[in-house]
Amino acid sequence: MSKKSDIENRMAYLDELVESIGYRSQLISRALKPDSGILSTRKTGFIIGFLTAVVFVLFIPLAVWFLIGTI
Predict the structure, then answer these.
(1) Looking at the whole model, is its pTM more than 0.70?
(2) Buried-state track 55-68, b at ≥16 Cβ within 10 A, e below 16
(3) CA 61 from centre of chain
(4) Nearest-5° angle of CA 17, CA 21, CA 23?
(5) Collapsing DSSP states into helix, strand and coil, what is residue 1?
(6) 36-58, pLDDT tens digit by residue?
(7) Per-residue pLDDT tens for 27-41?
(8) Which of 3, 25, 38, 67 shows its CA 20 to 30 Å from the CA of 58?
(9) Integer Cα distance of 47 and 45 in angstroms
């Protein structure tokens, strides 16, 4: 085997390795983008969800109860 073909084989392997690493890093970055977005809006989402639950559990039944009581 000639030295030139040995170097070409090694370079082809390195090119495949670099391409694989680039592909994996893109997959990791795509997976982390939604996670970071979710973490940044966690407090706001909790507050909105809590207030919505309070409206459905307390205010709407109380309003209906007062309306039925006045009829």
Answers:
(1) no
(2) eeeeeeeeeeeeee
(3) 36
(4) 115
(5) coil
(6) 777 778 889 999 999 999 999 99
(7) 888 887 777 777 778
(8) 38
(9) 5
